[in-house]
Amino acid sequence: MLCRRCGKFEFQQxxxxxxxxxxxxxxxxxxxxDELGIQLFLRNKHQIKLTYAGQVFWEKTNKILSDWVQR
Length: 71
Known about the structure:
Elements: E1 3-5, E2 8-10, H1 11-18, H2 22-36, E3 41-43, E4 48-50, H3 52-69
Antiparallel strand pairs: 1-2, 3-4
Helix pairs in contact: 1-2
C-alpha cells in the first residue's frame, strides 16, 4: 500500500511499509497503469499526485478492501 500524507503519495514510504525497494514498487504501479490503460499518478521530480482516475481507483479499491475486511 502506498502511504498517503497531506494529500500526496509517497512511493518510498509505501515501499518501506511493504519491505521492498522503491524501484520495484514504481515498476508495479507502472504495470498496473499499463494493464488498466489509465494514468493513476502525475509524476515529476518533486511531487506525485493522483489523477482524477487515480482518485476514483483509490476510493473504490479502499471501499472494496474495507468491505472485505469487515466480513
